[in-house]
Amino acid sequence: MPADTSTSPAELYRRSLQLLLDKDIPAWVGLWAEDGVMEFPFAPPGWPERLEGREAVADYMRDYPDHIDLHGFPEVRIHETTEPGTVVVEMRGVGRLVETGNPFDMTYIAVVTVEDGRFTSYRDYWNPLAVQQPGLDFVTEGAR
């Protein structure tokens, strides 16, 4: 499906959050440019630090709903920047870990760049201390 190039970075980001809540990972991946890059600057050793290309992002996210059942994003603040197409997002995602039923509560800061209606760069500054929660081991699968 062609990208809607009139969609602002903030609108695209909000759409991506809804797709995650809908557990529609193929549509979420469809928001990415073919050569989009996702980075995790705070990734602990053994976790992926960089995913290059839409297919790598798809592989990483494919089983996400089988591990984390997202219920909502109660806090989302999207800040415009002086860089065209780039926003900074502060947010919190809540839900439960599917395997254990334990609560999932993660805070994020992301620096996201959009070109031609698709994500081209997504730097996800998530809380690495949360990986100590049982049931989050699935994230390392994409690194191996």
Could you characterize the architecture of this molecule?
The protein has helices spanning 9-21, 25-29, 54-61, 64-67, and strands spanning 32-39, 50-52, 68-80, 86-97, 103-115, 118-126. With 144 residues, the protein is α+β, with helices and mostly antiparallel strands. The chain has a single domain, classed as Nuclear Transport Factor 2, Chain: A. It has a six-stranded mixed beta sheet with strand order 2-1-6-5-4-3. A hairpin with a 5-residue loop joins strand 4 (86-97) and strand 5 (103-115). It is globular and about 40 Å long.
How would you briefly describe this protein structure?
With 144 residues, the protein is an alpha+beta fold. The chain has 4 helices and 6 strands. It has one domain (9-136): Nuclear Transport Factor 2, Chain: A (Roll), CATH 3.10.450.
Salient structural properties:
144 residues, alpha+beta, Nuclear Transport Factor 2, Chain: A, 6-stranded mixed beta sheet, 21% helix, disordered C terminus
Identify the strand order in the major beta sheet: 2-1-6-5-4-3
CATH class: Alpha Beta
CATH topology: Nuclear Transport Factor 2, Chain: A
* Distance separating the two termini: 30 Å
Order of helices and strands: HHEEHHEEEE
Shape: globular
